[in-house]
Amino acid sequence: MSSSLAAMLLLAACGGGGGSPGATSGTSRPPVAQQPPAATPPAQTPGAGQPTPEDLNPNLLGKAYDSYWNQCAAPRSGVDASGRPYPDRQGSLLDELKFLRAWTNEYYLWYNEVPNTYKMADFSNPLDYFAVLKTPALTASGQPKDKYHFTYPTAEWEAMQTQGIDLGYGITFTRNREPNIPRVWVITAVEPGSPAAAAGLRRNDRLLKVDGIDFVNAGDPALVDRINAGLFPATAGTAHSFVFERAGATFEVSMTGAEVRVAPVKNVKVIETASGKVGYLSFETHNGVSEKQLIDAFTRLKAEGVADLVLDMRYNGGGLLYVASELAYMIAGPAATAGKVFERPQYNDKTPPQAPIMFRDTAYGFESPDPARPGSPLPTLNLRRVTVLTTAGTCSASEAVINGLRGADVEVIQIGGQTCGKPYGFTPVPNCGTTYFSIEFKGVNHKGFGDFPDGLAPTCQVADDLSRPVGDPAEGLLATALAYRNSNACPAPSSRARSAPTSIVRPEVKEISILTRAR
Q1: Per-residue confidence at 234, pLDDT binned at 50, 70, 90?
Q2: What is the percentage of the chain residues whose pLDDT exceeds 70?
Q3: CA torsion angle for 46, 50, 56, 60 (degrees, to 10)?
Q4: Is the pTM of this model over 0.85?
Q5: pLDDT digit string (tens) for 442-451?
Q6: What's the CA angle centered on 111, arms 105 and 116, to 5 degrees?
Q7: How far is CA 141 from CA 138, 216, 390, 391, 511, in A?
Q8: How far out from the chain centre does Cα 421 lie?
Q9: Which residues contact 244 (CB under 8 A, 6 or more apart)?
């Protein structure tokens, strides 16, 4: 958990929408993800400066982002976590702002919709300036056209991608979308070996208090700041107390924030059924660590002779598209995917057509503590049908797996809820210690389909069953998936109804599609 989620909580406490990160969190770090309103960003003082020619016409910058890249007002010194020297050079705030404007004007999908009314001289930091460099347009339903514009501290982003490290307690929460107060936050997952696991927390425990403060009803900003400090530690090593409810009884635990290594692939197993062996695995994020774990999982399932697969991506927000492509290939195999496009990125009209992402049959070899060997052949199950478990927390690269397989005429049976609807992708851009995420492309499959901004609808609508562990054959989604194999019938719509819609509590950076440059 991180400060972007703290921003989400503070927004809700102040009576805002409670859905999109955007308010500051009261911590000393920059928010993990910023999305202030398109008008009147917090660091801007209208009239404080004169517009430059580049403000009025960003085309004057041309492709000058190369000239401003790594020109920093406060350059870092030394080396990063991988031992590479920082590329920063002495520059100025204006250099950082010009880099952002030039990059946006060249690569942002909707570059020609970015307002030219903002003046660089009116901004005191690059995060607030980046926040307004997006289209202000709304969809027909009144929602922002671009809901996926954010930043992340580069060091944290790289640790998450290459080491699988999250700072926090190893808890994933789901929360009520409305109303903002009273808050209903329930644990959906506890990472093995984490502080939360050591404290005995379980799936379906409900949060009641943080450091003695009423989490459910607190609305005073000072109290919310204290809640944020407990829920989303800025550094490891500080202990906080929490009160949870389980089966009607309350209990208190103390946890100390830590750097938690998150295993993206879990619960790999073979389920024996009357109609044959069914493989199962839960998959939580498409990062570099997951590549080798997925290869190992499919190697095992292939050796055990599974004839079907249930892929549990109910909480998978996305990540690396090359990992998604490899996963889809390992499911379908060479016969179904030969010569077919997994995803074709569609860029703006300034970017020449790029090579599509094919179904990758070899490992890329992403950096991780246990990397796959680059170019090594991938195992395959050669399935013509796969069952995928989904919720509103299934996003972006996870949706690309479903869409890509359907484009190759592999039947995808979707059990659970409608996915979140993010057919867009990014190439993360690091500059001066911050990594910027600005939509660069829309992805379509081999058949040219990619229009699912409202999500992919399930074959059977079934609510997430928090009463049982993920991977338990009796858990609602998995039980329905196993039953559907035999009956081709969905349960009655009301059998597992939820009283209100919920959302997974996580930063925007975990709900993305990332395009890696080909080697």
Answers
A1: confident
A2: 85
A3: -140
A4: no
A5: 999 999 999 9
A6: 75
A7: 8, 30, 24, 21, 21
A8: 12
A9: 187, 201, 205, 206, 207, 208, 250, 251, 252, 253
